[in-house]
Amino acid sequence: MKVYRELSEFTPLKNAVVTSGTFDGVHIGHQKIISRLLQAAKETKGESVVITFWPHPRLVVSPDRENLRLLSNLDEKVDLLANLGVDHLLVLPFTREFSELSSEKYVEDILISGIGTETLVIGYDHRFGKNREGGFDYLKKNSERFKIDIVEIPRQEIDSLTISSTKIRKALQNGEVKIANELLGRTYSFQGLVKKGRQLGRTIGFPTANVNVSKKYKLIPALGVYAVKVHLRGDILKGVMNIGSRPTVEGTGITQEVHILDFDDDIYGENLKVETIDYIRPELKFDGVNELIAQIKRDCEAARKILS
């Protein structure tokens, strides 16, 4: 898949089959749209093009943007779309100025002049242009003038999936990772560098990796203990993760600490990818370290059973 970070990098194609959207998480609803895109490209002997936007539009124009958390950062989104077999990915920089672009200008300057769109694949509820003024009805009404064939993914197909990025975010924020994973069509993951903490886990026999997620807008699941898979040095390992403030040992701030089962290497400074498999329990405060150790042992056993 070829990736373009500006419209000026893109050379218009002879037969571009295009879809567009934010595609946060690239969940199974999005995958349905991409599948239809690839099918249309095959039928018309064209090349598939996905247009997406970065930053996420809500990070730019939403009054609640400071609280928005996303299912995927840009690198993750690129990888997910590449794995689906898309030919071209155009990432348009989203700014306030871009948000003021009319639907007419969007079609003429980007879809037609910039990309060479012959076929456009969109969901029934897709909106674009200033104040979301453009949509399927607008495109269908002007299809002869624009000389673009419109392929609609009808309401019943999208609604039957009952999926949205918002629904998945809420599931993760409630600790319902199995529901989120089902809607995503894969396990939800995040990654970051392992940074040095207070190393209290090592003193009680359960060394943990404190995963520092650098993107503040990346969604971290609800506080609690989880069974996880850990990608490290090309291997996939089993682990148990605590997301929280470690109240028993007077922790400060929220951390993501992973204990990798049957593993004791020094991995400070290394990159760790964590897949959240299942929720085990909420974070609790114990009366002392001995109670904490006993609970961690139970958590490890629970994780082993879940991951076996």
From TrEMBL:
Superkingdom, natural source: Bacteria
Keyword Kinase: yes
EC number from the UniProt entry: 2.7.1.26, 2.7.7.2
Reactions accelerated catalytically: FMN + ATP + H(+) = FAD + diphosphate; riboflavin + ATP = FMN + ADP + H(+)
Alphabetical UniProt keywords: ATP-binding, FAD, Flavoprotein, FMN, Kinase, Multifunctional enzyme, Nucleotide-binding, Nucleotidyltransferase, Transferase
GO biological process, one term: riboflavin biosynthetic process
Ranges where the Riboflavin kinase domain occurs: 183-308
Keyword Nucleotide-binding: yes
Pathway: Cofactor biosynthesis; FMN biosynthesis; FMN from riboflavin (ATP route): step 1/1; Cofactor biosynthesis; FAD biosynthesis; FAD from FMN: step 1/1
UniProt cross-references to SMART domains, sorted A to Z: Flavokinase
InterPro entries assigned: FAD_synthase, Riboflavin_kinase, Riboflavin_kinase_bac, Riboflavin_kinase_bac/euk, Riboflavin_kinase_dom_sf, Rossmann-like_a/b/a_fold
Record-level Gene Ontology MF annotations: ATP binding; FMN adenylyltransferase activity; riboflavin kinase activity
Task performed by this protein: Catalyzes the phosphorylation of riboflavin to FMN followed by the adenylation of FMN to FAD.
Family: Belongs to the ribF family.
Name of this chain's protein: Riboflavin biosynthesis protein
Protein's organism: Arcticibacterium luteifluviistationis
